[in-house]
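Design job #97: recover the sequence.
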C-alpha cells in the first residue's frame, strides 16, 4: 500500500526514529488503523528518499514500541493490540531477561526476605482474627466501613489529605484509583493536561478512555506554573493529572512554593485536579499534597504498593465532597469492590504502625542505593532524590538512549529510555531511567551500575551507530 508519513516526520534526531515516531503519530490520529499492512521496506525507503536499512531500523523500532507486527512471509502490519505506548517489559507475559540479567528497568520497591516474612506473619494473624465480612462482603462497594475509617484517619493525619470517611474509596491499587477519578469527570474526547514526561500508565489510560492527553513543560520541580497557565488558556482542559512527588521518570518533586503556584493556576481556571501521590511515603513527612490547597476540585490517589510489598495493591481514592455518588458506579463497573482481604491486611498494618515502619525502612534502603549509584556514576550527569526509586541519567554525546538500551541488554543489563513516558511526539531527551529497587541483592545492583558506567565511558559499537 501507499502511505504518506511526511506530515508526521520531524527533522530532529536520527531518521529511523523520526519514521517510527511518525508511524506512532499517524496511528494516534487515526490515519493508520489496526490491521493495516505497511509498505515493504524498499517501497517506503523510495517514498521517503532514505536507505532500506533506515526503514528496516524504523520498522524494528516501531515493533519494539508495540506499534507494528512483522509476520514472516506476510509483511509488517499495524498492531491490533492497543498497547503501543506500553513499555516492552509490560507487554510480555514472561520476563524477557534471563535470570542472570540485572534489572534496572522496572519501578519496584526494595523487597527483602524481611518483607516476605512480615507479609506471611500478617496473613497468619489475619487467619485467626479476620472478620467474616472479609470473605463474605459483596455489597459495600466503597469498601468495608472499618477499613475506610482507619484509612481516612491515616490519610488525613499522615499525608494531610482533606476529607472524611464519606469521601474515601478503596480501590485495587493506585492505577485503578486513577482510572476511577478520570472516568468520573472526563468524557471521551476531552483534553487532559499532564507533565510532558509522565507515568506510562496514564498514557495508556488516555487511549483506553479516549481522552486527549497533552504534555506541559517541566523542570526539576515538575510542571512549570507559567506553562500550565498557558496550556489551560489554550486547550481549555477538563482536568489536569499531576504527580507532585517523585514524578516518574524524572523524580522531580515540587517544593511547597511550587505547589502553591500550581494550585493558584488551577483555582483560577476552575479545572479538576487528579493528584497521583503514590510516592508520597517515599518522602519524609512535611510535604502537603496539592489536594489540600483546593479540596473542592481535587481527586487524590495513593497506595501502599511502593513502600510495603509490591503485592499489597491497596489503593485509596479521595474524592471532592459530593462526588462519591458519581465515582461509585465506575468502581462497581470495573471491580464491584476492592478486594477485602488485601485491605484487611492493610488495615492491620495501618493499625499497628507497620506501614509507617516499612515506609521508613524503604526510604533507608533507597537512600543506601542512591548513594551507591552516585559513587558508580561519578562524573556523569544525573538527577535523583535521596529516597527515590529511580535515577534519571543524562547520556554522554557518544550515546543515544535506544543504542545504550540495546547494548546494555546484550551485556545482560535492563534499563529504560524516556520513550514510554513521552506524552507528545517530540524529540526524546537523551536520558535513561535506572530503577534501583528491583534487584534484591545490592551486590548485583552494584555490578549492574558498574557495567553501565563502563558502557557510558566507551563509544557505541559500530553496529549500533546511527544510519541516516
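Job complete. Output follows.
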Amino acid at each position: 500500500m501507499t502511505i504518506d508519513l511526511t506530515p508526521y516526520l520531524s527533522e530532529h534526531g536520527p531518521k529511523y526514529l523520526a519514521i517510527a515516531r511518525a508511524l506512532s503519530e499517524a496511528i494516534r490520529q487515526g490515519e493508520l488503523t489496526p490491521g493495516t499492512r505497511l509498505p515493504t521496506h524498499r517501497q517506503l525507503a523510495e517514498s521517503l528518499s532514505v536507505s532500506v536499512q533506515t526503514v528496516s531500523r524504523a520498522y524494528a523500532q516501531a515493533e519494539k514500541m508495540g506499534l507494528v507486527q512483522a509476520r514472516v512471509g506476510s509483511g509488517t502490519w499495524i498492531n491490533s493490540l492497543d498497547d503501543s505506548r506500553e513499555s516492552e517489559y509490560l507487554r510480555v507475559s514472561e520476563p524477557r531477561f534471563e535470570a542472570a540479567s540485572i534489572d534496572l528497568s522496572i519501578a519496584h520497591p526494595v523487597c527483602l526476605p524481611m518483607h516476605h516474612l512480615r507479609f506471611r506473619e500478617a496473613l497468619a494473624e489475619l487467619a485467626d482474627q479476620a472478620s467474616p465480612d472479609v470473605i463474605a462482603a459483596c455489597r459495600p462497594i466503597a469498601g468495608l466501613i472499618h477499613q475506610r475509617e482507619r484509612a481516612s484517619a491515616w490519610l488525613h493525619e499522615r499525608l494531610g489529605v482533606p476529607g472524611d470517611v464519606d469521601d474515601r474509596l478503596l480501590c485495587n491499587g493506585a492505577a485503578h484509583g486513577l482510572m476511577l477519578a478520570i472516568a468520573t469527570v472526563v468524557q471521551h474526547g476531552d483534553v487532559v493536561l499532564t507533565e510532558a514526561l509522565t507515568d506510562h500508565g496514564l498514557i495508556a489510560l488516555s487511549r483506553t478512555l479516549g481522552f486527549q492527553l497533552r504534555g506541559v513543560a517541566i523542570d526539576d520541580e515538575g510542571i512549570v506554573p507559567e506553562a500550565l497557565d498557558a496550556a489551560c488558556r489554550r486547550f481549555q482542559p477538563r482536568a489536569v493529572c499531576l504527580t507532585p512527588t517523585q514524578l516518574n521518570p524524572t523524580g522531580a518533586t515540587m517544593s511547597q512554593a511550587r505547589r502553591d503556584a500550581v494550585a493558584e493556576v488551577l483555582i483560577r481556571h476552575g479545572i479538576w485536579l487528579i493528584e497521583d501521590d503514590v510516592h508520597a511515603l517515599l518522602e519524609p513527612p512535611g510535604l502537603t499534597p496539592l489536594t489540600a490547597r483546593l479540596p473542592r476540585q481535587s481527586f487524590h490517589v495513593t497506595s501502599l504498593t511502593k513502600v510495603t510489598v509490591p503485592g499489597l495493591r491497596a489503593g485509596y481514592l479521595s474524592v471532592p465532597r459530593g462526588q462519591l455518588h458519581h465515582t461509585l458506579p465506575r468502581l462497581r463497573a470495573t471491580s464491584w469492590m476492592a478486594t477485602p482481604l488485601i485491605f484487611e491486611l492493610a488495615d492491620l498494618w495501618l493499625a499497628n504502625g507497620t506501614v509507617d515502619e516499612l515506609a521508613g525502612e524503604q526510604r533507608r534502603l533507597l537512600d543506601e542505593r542512591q548513594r551507591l549509584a552516585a559513587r558508580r556514576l561519578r562524573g556523569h550527569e544525573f538527577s535523583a532524590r535521596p529516597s527515590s526509586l529511580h535515577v534519571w541519567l543524562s547520556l554522554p554525546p557518544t550515546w543515544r538512549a535506544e543504542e545504550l538500551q540495546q547494548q546494555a541488554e546484550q551485556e545482560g543489563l535492563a534499563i529504560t529510555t524516556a520513550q514510554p513516558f513521552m506524552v507528545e511526539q517530540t524529540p526524546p531527551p537523551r536520558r535513561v531511567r535506572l530503577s534501583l529497587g528491583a534487584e534484591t541483592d545490592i551486590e548485583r545492583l552494584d555490578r549492574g551500575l558498574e557495567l553501565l558506567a563502563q558502557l557510558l565511558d566507551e563509544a557505541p559499537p559500530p553496529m549500533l551507530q546511527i544510519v541516516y
